[in-house]
């Protein structure tokens, strides 16, 4: 690579995009684990404790939703950029 050139390592980038997809899957797995914990706790608490537990569960679900949406949006934006750069690279190569 020339010192003034740009190298787009599409293969490595694709691997990183797969890593991001793995993060989304990990969030879903954690969500399942947390759901199981809250279900177990819900059999113990009554009254105000049950209400507070339910509220905490909703807050955790909202945080997980936000994290998952952020990861999915990041992956989509990165994939779109990767696709655009590959298309531009092919177009530029065809010009030679």
Structure in words:
This protein is 84% helix and 0% strand. Helix 1 runs antiparallel to helix 2 (47-94). The mean pLDDT is 89. The radius of gyration is 22 Å and the shape is rod-shaped. The chain is mainly alpha-helical and 96 residues long. This is ESAT-6-like protein. InterPro entries: ESAT-6-like_sf. It comes from Mycolicibacterium mageritense (Mycobacterium mageritense).
Helix content: over 70%
Strand content: under 5%
Largest sheet: none
Structural class, by secondary structure, is: mainly alpha
Regions with little confidence, pLDDT below 50 for 5+ residues: none
- What is the H-and-E element order? HH
Number of separate helices: 2
Whole-number average pLDDT? 89
How many β-strand stretches?
A: 0
Termini separation: 17 Å
Q: Kindly provide the radius of gyration, computed on alpha-carbon positions and rounded to a whole number of angstroms.
A: 22 Å
Estimate the global geometry from the Cα principal axes: rod-shaped
Topology diagram in text:
Elements: H1 10-42, H2 47-94
State the main characteristics:
about 100 residues; mainly alpha; 2 helices; about 85% helix; ESAT-6-like protein; ESAT-6-like_sf; coiled coil
Quick description:
This protein is an all-alpha fold.
